[in-house]
Specification:
Length: 391
């Protein structure tokens, strides 16, 4: 029996060593070739250089030319359809609440499709148009959740808050929407079908958000020159897309950590107890050719010179890239960067220029200065910044 247990222990240790060795995803052949398909595509990803990656030190003229190229790349992969002949948006209900007037609107972005959004207006009447914030929720949240948080805070400040749902959530959800206490929306099925159709979840949801933005620019009660897009968590992704595609947006609230998604996929290669690796994100984040074009920090660079606030950190490497872009645009002071409280002190952070491979999610997040238990709408940072910006 003892001999049998020793054999089992030796076998287990061999498997552990092999798993640790495989985490590096290198060839063990003399010619360096790879047979493991995951290792092959992992190496492909290593060699992928985004076409529109921002390069520090651009002149203002170079920056302007680069920004136009990135916008063209974004248009190529988002694949927004050209739609004409649809009805104008319509207000279908209006109610006075304790702290605001709440309107339910419909817009008709394409044939056979209706999108519902909420408009929260301050109770105090004014003859002058007001600043407005397009509020895009995080995963599992809806536009009705926003009026208990982000949008509520904005309308209390005297601004108009326009709230949308993410595709496949809230009013856009399938059968799970029949359960009012559920936040576990099925984004995956719709995302899969969109990919099969040659589109993507982000392409579709950003297209819908863009239609609401166009309505905001025509609404007489809204200052066209003071429209801010505020994204929380998942909502930062469509925020970045429409930010690149529309120069009329005045400013941006980025309430999430700034992530290099290509590097995240390269570094989170840990093997679980069943010998499996896991992709760091779900299929709704999959946009074909995205990594051939840019990463999140590059897209944020293209928002310059318009005011932008980050509230939940990331690597200083990413922030410094965005700061460099704002300097190239001629507005170095227009970007504001905050870390999670745990990492706000520079002494609490490591200034990493690269990440190791073989990481689990639990190892990755603190390595990029993320404190996941404190991921929430950072009103204490955002509201003072907006007050100064919109006063």
């Amino acid at each position: 029996m003892k001999r049998f247990l020793n054999i089992l222990f030796a076998l287990a240790m061999t498997l552990v060593c092999q798993a640790q060795e495989d985490t590096t995803l290198v060839s063990h052949r003399a010619d360096g070739r790879l047979e493991n398909t995951y290792a092959v595509v992992h190496q492909m990803l290593h060699k992928t250089q985004p076409k529109w990656a921002f390069k520090k030190g651009m002149t203002k003229k170079e920056f302007t030319k680069w920004k136009k190229g990135l916008r063209k790349g974004m248009a190529e992969i988002m694949k927004w359809p050209t739609v004409t002949g649809q009805p104008k948006p319509l207000c279908v209900n209006s109610e006075r609440k304790e702290e605001w007037i709440e309107e339910t609107w419909e817009c008709y972005p394409m044939e056979g499709v209706v999108e519902t959004f909420l408009v929260l207006r301050p109770l105090k009447a004014t003859n002058e148009p007001l600043p407005a914030l397009l509020c895009i929720p995080g995963s599992g949240q809806t536009m009705r959740d926003l009026k208990r948080g982000m949008a509520r805070d904005y309308v209390r400040e005297g601004w108009i808050a326009v709230c949308v749902d993410n595709a496949a959530a809230g009013d856009q959800a399938d059968q799970e929407n029949k359960y009012p206490d559920s936040w576990d929306y099925d984004y995956e099925l719709s995302s899969r079908l969109l990919l099969e159709l040659g589109w993507s979840w982000l392409g579709y949801t950003s297209f819908l958000n863009y239609q609401v933005l166009q309505w905001m620019k025509t609404e007489k009660s809204i200052r066209r020159d003071r429209i801010v897009v505020s994204g929380f968590s998942l909502g930062t992704e469509p925020m970045m897309v429409i930010g690149v595609m529309d120069d009329d947006i005045y400013a941006f609230v980025y309430n999430d950590f700034l992530c290099n998604t290509q590097e995240r996929a390269l570094s989170m290669t840990a093997i679980d107890e069943k010998g499996r690796r896991h992709f760091p994100n779900s299929i709704r984040h999959l946009i074909p050719d995205y990594w051939h074009m840019f990463n999140f920090a590059d897209v944020c660079c293209a928002l310059a010179p318009r005011p932008l606030i980050f509230t939940e950190g990331g690597l200083d490497r990413e922030f410094n890239l965005v700061r460099s872009a704002y300097a190239s645009s001629g507005s170095p002071d227009a970007v504001t960067c905050y870390h999670y409280a745990r990492f706000q002190d520079p002494a609490a952070r490591v200034d990493r220029q690269s990440l190791p491979e073989g990481l689990t999610m639990a190892e990755y997040l603190p390595m990029v200065n993320v404190d996941p238990g404190h991921h929430y709408f950072k009103r204490d940072l955002i509201l003072p910044w907006l007050r100064e910006l919109l006063k």
